[in-house]
TrEMBL record:
<dbReference type="Pfam" id="PF03354">
    <property type="entry name" value="TerL_ATPase"/>
</dbReference>
<dbReference type="InterPro" id="IPR005021">
    <property type="entry name" value="Terminase_largesu-like"/>
</dbReference>
<dbReference type="InterPro" id="IPR046461">
    <property type="entry name" value="TerL_ATPase"/>
</dbReference>
<dbReference type="InterPro" id="IPR027417">
    <property type="entry name" value="P-loop_NTPase"/>
</dbReference>
<protein>
    <submittedName>
        <fullName>Terminase</fullName>
    </submittedName>
</protein>
<feature type="domain" description="Terminase large subunit-like ATPase">
    <location>
        <begin position="83"/>
        <end position="225"/>
    </location>
</feature>
Length: 541
């Protein structure tokens, strides 16, 4: 099965750590106004003086895992103002940031007076989680130290510290209220991916704009956002200068219960933090059995993948698609009529085609990109590294045209791949009617064209016919990186009546080959199911 090298592991060799976005210093030193330069080991040493406030190991000394130490070193490196951490649920990211907040409150590495630490979350209840960790760490200190704190649990959740210049921890909810005028020395933005877009962005901007007043820093932590357009995803994908990014996200398209990739998203599991590997695998298999939103939620929260959990489900699971793959020499022959499914791309997007022989179940697919930009640049922009280049080397992806794929020559090239065979029909999107007509005329094709829509009506029927054919073993294809990638990104949107239509699981996903395959297989299924008309022998009166 195709595997992409994890993003955090690729960049570790470049940045000497798990993160990306800046080049780390060799001694991991940071400069906050009011103190001398201190090493990140000062922060780590303080954290390991604390005691675990809750859970099976409550009361034991806090011992940081390797990935936690790496985040501390990266987030406190020289020149860094914002540290971003994306990791699966239950890996103690909130507890880690709360411990850093407590050290900042106590002035362990920052002795400027009246320090201000902000704990921000989508709502008050979520902010309370980080607040409770701060309070729990305080309760593990000596009685003399505890007397220096004032904890307020009323309408405002606050912790005040009276020694070493004093400080205050405040809980803030992203409810639209302005905090302009604040001057935080440290801000912790918890579960940033779950914040409401407009209110969350407004709060984030207000917090970050105040950091510069006192050389403050921010820690933005969360599980993965559901899509690439989320503000938290943009922090990961397009980190501005002065940002340290540490992301634990496995490759796309792997089974939900794949242990190796589960441990990428949950590095604490191997070090005794959070859920055990056995529990993760068991939960993954339960989610696979339930499917739908249960599987999407598990992938998003526990596997840290960018998968939406609202009104969506995968088109087919990775395991269901892999059941259709056979060795190239075991493919059925090209017998009977051939159905050509076509998804004509836009000005710069991929065009894809699938050839399907319904009598034998044989399926072939090919994708096409224009020459500009190159495949390597496209892969970098789409977040898939060298995947397009690998597809091209395997013969699954071709390049045609300069800035756009010319429809006429492209259709002619597709017909050449049939080695003299003529497709029984071509199936495509009805909204591209004019372009298809011109392309068929330019290619000299005189075959029936069947128009299908990608909305709820035609789309739901085609998806159901495709799934039935796949599950019944009526689709057989050689291992194809193009199709694996497309089906990994393909989801379905569900309306209140239970109808499905095809959609992308992520904004930069390429599902063109999946769309063409659904069209071709669904039309083939209709033809197989159609009753054979019997001709009557003429009778002379």
């Amino acid at each position: 099965m195709w595997r992409q090298e994890p993003r955090w592991h690729r960049t570790a060799r470049q940045l000497h750590g798990y993160g990306r976005g800046i080049r780390l210093g060799t001694d991991c030193r940071t400069q906050w106004r009011g103190v001398e330069k201190v090493t990140a080991e000062t922060v780590i040493s303080f954290l390991e003086t604390l005691r675990i406030p809750e859970g099976p190991k409550a009361g034991e000394p806090l011992v940081l895992a390797g990935y936690q130490k790496q985040f501390v070193r990266g987030a406190t490196a020289d020149g860094v103002m914002i540290g971003v951490l994306s990791i699966g649920r239950g890996n103690a990211k909130t507890a880690l940031s709360a411990g850093i907040g407590l050290g900042s409150l106590m002035g362990v590495w920052d002795d400027q007076p009246k320090r201000e630490i902000i704990l921000a979350a989508r709502n008050r209840d979520q902010a309370k989680t980080a607040f409770q960790f701060v309070v729990g760490f305080i309760e593990g200190l000596s009685e003399d130290e505890q007397e220096l704190f004032i904890v307020r649990r009323g309408s405002k959740l606050e912790v005040e510290y009276s020694a070493n210049g004093g400080g205050l921890v405040r809980c803030i909810a992203a409810d639209g209220k302005s905090i302009l005028g604040g001057a935080p020395t440290l801000a912790i933005l918890d579960e940033r991916a779950a914040w409401e877009r407009e209110k969350g962005d407004a709060l984030e901007n207000a917090i970050l704009s105040g950091l510069g007043k006192r050389d403050g820093r921010a820690l933005i932590i969360s599980t993965s956002a559901p899509d690439d357009t989320n503000t938290f995803s943009r922090w990961m994908d397009e980190p501005p200068p002065g940002t340290y990014v540490q992301e634990h996200r496995p490759p796309f398209g792997l089974p939900a219960d794949d242990l190796e990739s589960l441990l990428i998203a949950n590095p604490g599991s191997a070090e005794g933090i959070g859920a055990s590997p056995e529990w993760l695998v068991a939960q993954a298999r339960r989610a696979i059995a339930r499917g739908g939103s249960a599987l999407s939620s598990f992938r998003n929260l526990n596997r840290n993948e960018r998968v939406s959990t609202e009104d969506r489900s995968v088109l087919v699971t990775v395991d269901e698609w892999l059941s259709a793959e056979v060795a190239p020499d075991a493919l059925p022959p090209r017998d009977g009529p051939c159905i050509l499914g076509v998804d004509l791309g836009g000005s710069r997007s991929m065009s894809a085609a699938s050839f399907y022989w319904p009598q034998t179940g044989r399926l072939e697919a090919v994708g096409t990109f224009p020459a500009k930009p190159g495949l390597a640049d496209r892969g970098a922009a789409d977040g898939v590294s060298g995947r397009y280049t690998e597809m091209h080397e395997r013969g699954e992806l071709i390049v045609m045209g300069d800035n756009t794929v010319p429809p006429g020559p492209w259709l002619a090239e597709l017909v050449k791949r049939l080695d003299g065979l003529t497709p029984a029909c071509i199936v495509g999107d009805r909204f591209r009617h004019a372009e298809f007509s011109e392309a068929m005329l330019a290619a000299g094709l005189r075959v029936p064209f069947i128009w299908r829509g990608f909305g709820w009506k035609d789309g739901s029927e085609d998806i159901e016919r495709f799934r039935r054919a796949l599950f019944d073993g009526c689709v057989q294809v050689a291992p194809s990186l193009l199709l694996r990638s497309a089906f990994a990104d393909a989801i379905t949107l569900i309306d209140p009546a239970g109808n499905h239509k095809l959609a992308k699981g992520r904004a930069l996903g390429r599902i063109d080959a999946a769309a063409a395959t659904v069209l071709a297989v669904a039309e083939g299924a209709r033809r197989v199911a159609a009753p054979v008309r019997k001709t009557r022998t003429p009778v002379w009166a």
